[in-house]
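## Example record

The block below lists the input lines for one assembly entry, exactly as stored, with component labels intact.
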Amino acid sequence: MAAVTFRFPYPAAGSAAPDLVAQPVDAPTISVMDAAAERGDGAFETFGIVGGAPQAVRDHLERLRESLAMLELPDPDLPALAETCRRIAARATGDAWLKLVVTRGGMDRAAPSAWAVLADAADTAPLRTDGIAVVTADRGFASDYAAREPWALIGAKTLSYAQNMAAIREAHRRGAGDMLWATSDGVLLEAPTSSLVVRRGSALVTPDPRVGTLHGTTQRAMFRWAEGAGLETAYARLTRADLASADAGWLASSVRGAVPISRVDGSALPIDRARTDEIAAFLRARRD
Amino acid sequence: MAAVTFRFPYPAAGSAAPDLVAQPVDAPTISVMDAAAERGDGAFETFGIVGGAPQAVRDHLERLRESLAMLELPDPDLPALAETCRRIAARATGDAWLKLVVTRGGMDRAAPSAWAVLADAADTAPLRTDGIAVVTADRGFASDYAAREPWALIGAKTLSYAQNMAAIREAHRRGAGDMLWATSDGVLLEAPTSSLVVRRGSALVTPDPRVGTLHGTTQRAMFRWAEGAGLETAYARLTRADLASADAGWLASSVRGAVPISRVDGSALPIDRARTDEIAAFLRARRD
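Predicted structure tokens for the full assembly:
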């Protein structure tokens, strides 16, 4: 399946699902002065698609609504967006991802712009087998910053991802596969495109989003799996020492799923193969 | 003059100036998966245009090269870009601005994308007369962060400006015209789209870029004016108390010029009308 783009009028609250016309993904479909391209000023969500259906639609769209509220953009019509995602996902011919974008609009910012991209997903099985080495780095802000300065958009999934991409390049430079951010006072946050989940004995633990992370949709699904599997779950403040002494760790995201962390800053972390496989099966079986 | 867009092949080092074709600014000219729109992953510079010529071309293009280096994008051909800016500026029919953008490229990231936008500038005289009220806020990072974590792109002029735009909205909410950021340890930085310059007696002082700011092109021009006017100039660590006790302050940027700061966190700051006018005349008279 060739990747395709769908441009459509932004369905603000009360709107019906828009008509959809597919265009090649490389076709010129937006102005260079759209707020996305001019300022990274918009929000997005990336949905996994399995069996022609988008996953975790409610969690993604609720988070999108929260991001748009933080950006002071008009509320979306969530049923219309959900229907849009389902119609697009139905065109997928195999495992795929769907990226949904809402921006502050064209040069006149008269109304938000909206579009979606549908593309084939890569095979994630090798990542699950090998695991991923991470290095930690200071994100810069302290663990009380997000609550103290809400204008700063910490926790909004905006299009301003240049630093996220730079963090991944830095991780590669240090011989790792991904970066794991910590606050300036040493509280673990997230990776540039995924959430951290660790297992400590019989509990899955993830950083409290109030410390300055996105609330992960895949992490939430892992917690639902854990509850079904008899594990406890907790949101907590985790340090590098907590991770180093954990029984296992994963980076969780919609496209890659739950990827086991194999090393942290050069030291090995155990890979929990049984639970990694169980989680992968659970994530794959999800329908919204 | 209607705003126009120019898309052209990125002139990497050794390339000649590209041919230019103008398109309406709202025309769809890029893919939604260009790195600009997908991730805010690119760099930009905005040039003032007076009399059909771009201003501070060398300072802008050197800073663009530094931003691109921090982003690990290929070096540009600076003479080719300078010639491109001059050709575009020659089409302006009055005071204008020119925004030059380089991104990591289309969906395949095979080569950087490049474009420019030319548009009329607004009249900045009222802002110079009234001055602008600013409120301060914590940017989050400490004054040693930029040097300690160079991967974080502090000091690169990237397209990831969602937080900058949010800061301006927050300033408006607080009844001010602009925000002035400080580090978490209280060192003044810059505004979301301009540099801070203060006068203390016979000296112009600006925050040291190594603390975590862009090195302002208009601030540098103000320093050249100051040297001609018999004032001293200095890069320093400035605190909120330094600003409150300053003899005058300005927010300096290519499009607005040097705008006097009238209030800081609700307290009045003197407006230095004579020097504001002298600086405005100096900035306007510049040719590169």
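Chain B has nine helices and 15 strands. Residues 57-70 of chain B form the longest helix (14 residues).
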